[in-house]
Amino acid sequence: MTDQSPILRLENIVKAFPGVRALDGVSLDLRPGEVHALMGENGAGKSTLMKVLGGLHQPNEGKIYIGEKQVVMDRPQTAKQNGVVFIHQELSLADELSVAENIFLGELPRKSLGRVDWEKLYTDTDAILDRLNVGFNARTRVGDLSIANQQMVEIARALTVDPRAVIFDEPTASLTDSEKVVLFDVIADLQSRGVGVIYISHRMEEIFKITDRISVLRDGSYRGTLNTAETNEEDVTQLMIGRKLDLSRNKVQHEMGDVALEVRNLSCGKLFHDVSFTVRKGEVVGFYGLVGAGRTEIAETIFGLREPSAGKILLDGQEVTINSPQDAIARGISLVPEDRKGQGLVLGMNCRDNMTLPQIGELTSGPFTSDKAEVAIFDKYHDALDIRTPGWRQTVGNLSGGNQQKIVIGKWLSMHPKVLIVDEPTRGIDVGSKSEIHNLIRDLAAQGYAVIVVSSEMPEVLHVSDRIVAMFSGRVMREFTTEEVTENNLVQAISGLSEDRVA
Ligand SMILES: Nc1ncnc2c1ncn2[C@@H]1O[C@H](COP(=O)(O)OP(=O)(O)OP(=O)(O)O)[C@@H](O)[C@H]1O
Ligand SMILES: [Mg+2]
Q: Is 45 in the pocket of ligand 1 (CB under 6 A)?
């Protein structure tokens, strides 16, 4: 047993928002050098608890101790002065500024006359970036970086102070495997220097790999803390969702119809090359591969976001030209994008309007939109996807991260597409809802939709697909039916090791 006194303690924190008791008396402590996981379903209160600790929200009740001293975290600077730094779930960077300016925002180094010491700013920034082993530098404009690299900038920002505690709120959601390795090295390094780390993630394999203890929240209540080494996924899940997860539901094989979508020798510059496949009505085809294999780009090309450099797309046997997403939607193709925050939601708008946005034309009669029809759509997907919100009037920006994603999924489902493409359908989604979304995808196929699921998670592709297309470096390496696929040959195919590339 450690008898080290904790770095910080949260005691009986209560936080209420209109219509939601987000935290209902939560206590937590963090020890020096430990990685402490915070887990719970979407909307359980994880981010809110961390925002209270980070000085972004004021609790209605409860106390925060740093060491033995009680501290009122009245603003983020107070938290930082007390050595608590926060890497947010939502990126909060200024696109127009350089990486260096973003990292030192509000604390730019100054020369004697108050002028910014640009040279020092850039050297200090590059020193931090070196530690993170990234492929950009201090002067790069943040708006030019990929989402994953922007995430690395957020992480770099936390390393400018000598922290006592670092909070990571779903840091790996958009990172590639190699970036994850760097992040875990950074965490191990913080740990070895006695820094405490609070780590929020829905990815069980990460939790069991890097954490020492796991605390669980359910509906804003504290459910307990487990030693990672003494527990397992099943017990943690049960604590999170209050029941055993039913994974027994077998994949229902349903009848398949004609080919709905056919892609023939499709290429798009250097992004992907000579890609051919079909998707039948009632079929789920999984696209599996590493980040950068070209899967998202194929989806975007079919959806009219990119122009192919060669090849054909056929819908119901007819060749079609898709010049824009409007074209795609009109032809019955929907894409639930990977970057849902950037491409999927209007954060200041309410839940219902976000969901019915693409259909606003159809739901309008005369000068008015049909409120009733819109609410009915919201209600349907609210129930089907188990979206946690006090009601449709809630602003989407106030929903928890995972629930925001469910709104986007609902939005595209409600359009009853013929071909539905879902890119990383359960990224950031908790385990319980994950299996609900998988079941929903299978149900949609059973109703005759042709579905493409792009995913980097092997269990997910294996679970939802009838057929799996394995990609490596912009090419289709192999196709598997679910009967013949094994984890081994799937891994081989996506690493480019497979001998028998399909012609
Ligand atoms: N600013 C806000 N105004 C109103 N309600 C809010 C606000 N912030 C959070 N909530 C609500 O508080 C509850 C907890 O949300 P929180 O973001 O803490 O969940 P979470 O555990 O981080 O979930 P996720 O895994 O989806 O990120 C949710 O019901 C959410 O809708
Ligand atoms: Mg959250």
A: yes
Closest to 62 in 3D by CA, of 16, 6, 5: 16
In the chain, DSSP finds a helix count (H) and a strand count (E) of 18, 22
- With H, G, I as helix, E, B as strand and everything else as coil, classify residue 433: helix
- The architecture of the domain spanning 8-241 is 3-Layer(aba) Sandwich (3.40)
Ligand 1 lined by 386 (C-beta under 6 Å): no
CATH code for the structural domain at 255-332+419-503: 3.40.50.300
- Nearest ligand by distance to the CA of 429: 1
Ligand 2 centroid distance, CA of 455 (Å): 21
| 138 within 8 A of 129, measured Cβ to Cβ | yes
Query: What is the pLDDT, as a whole number, of residue 173?
Result: 73
* pLDDT (0 to 100) of residue 373: 85
- CA torsion sign for 458, 461, 486, 476 is negative
Higher pLDDT, 3 or 314: 314
State the number of CA atoms in the 13 A half-sphere of 321 facing the CB: 4
Q: Is 22 in the pocket of ligand 1 (CB under 6 A)?
A: yes
Task: Render pLDDT for 318-362 as a digit per residue (tens, 0 to 9).
Answer: 999 999 999 999 999 999 887 766 667 888 899 999 998 877 666
**Cα separations (Å) of 484 from 287, 369, 466, 470, 472?**
16, 50, 11, 13, 19
Residue spans of the domains in the chain: they are: 8-241, 255-332+419-503, 344-416
Distances (CA, A) of 443 to 220, 234, 456: 31, 25, 22
Ligand 1 contacts CB of residue 388 (under 6 A): yes
Q: Are strands 310-315 and 259-268 parallel, antiparallel or unpaired?
A: antiparallel
Tokens of 185: 């090295």
- For residues 314 and 295, give the distance between their C-alpha atoms in angstroms, rounded to a whole number: 18
DSSP characters over 463-498: HH-SEEEEEETTEEEEEEETTT--HHHHHHHHTT--
Look at 409 and 266; give whichever has higher pLDDT: 266
